[in-house]
Every structure is written in C-alpha cells, then in structure tokens.
Design brief:
With 68 residues, the chain is mainly α. The protein has a domain of 29 residues. The protein has one helix and no strands. The longest helix has 27 residues. The protein is rod-shaped, with a radius of gyration of 29 Å.
Length: 68
C-alpha cells in the first residue's frame, strides 16, 4: 500500500500542478484579444501575366512585379 499510495499521491500532485498551470495560462491569455480580421483588398488582385498598372505596357511580372 505504501508504494501505490506514493504513486497515487505523485499522480494527484502532478494533476493539481497541471490544472494550476492551465488556469494561470488561461488567466494570462484572457486579455483584451481582438479577433483577427481579414484584410479586404480595395481593388482586384493583379495577375502576374496582366499588363502592369504603371502603364509601361509590360507584363506585371516583368515590370513592377519583379520586386514584389
């Protein structure tokens, strides 16, 4: 009984410690978190093979898209 009780006590202490750590993490993480909002694009996405919007006449990937 001494060994089984000892193991049970160790297991119970471990569970208490885990519960305490989870509660502390929950309390620390419960700040004023705002839900992540998706970015809304104002205009249509420029495709790589579309003409460049700068007006050069080149494809976007060969003009302003090389740095993107």
């Amino acid at each position: 009984r001494g060994v089984a009780t000892s193991v049970d006590e160790i297991e119970e202490a471990f569970q208490r410690k885990k519960r305490r750590e989870l509660e502390q993490a929950r309390m620390a993480g419960s700040g004023d978190l705002q839900p992540v909002q998706q970015v809304v694009r104002g205009s249509a996405k420029i495709g790589r093979n579309d003409p460049c919007p700068c007006g050069s006449g080149k494809k976007y990937k060969k003009c302003c898209g090389t740095n993107a």
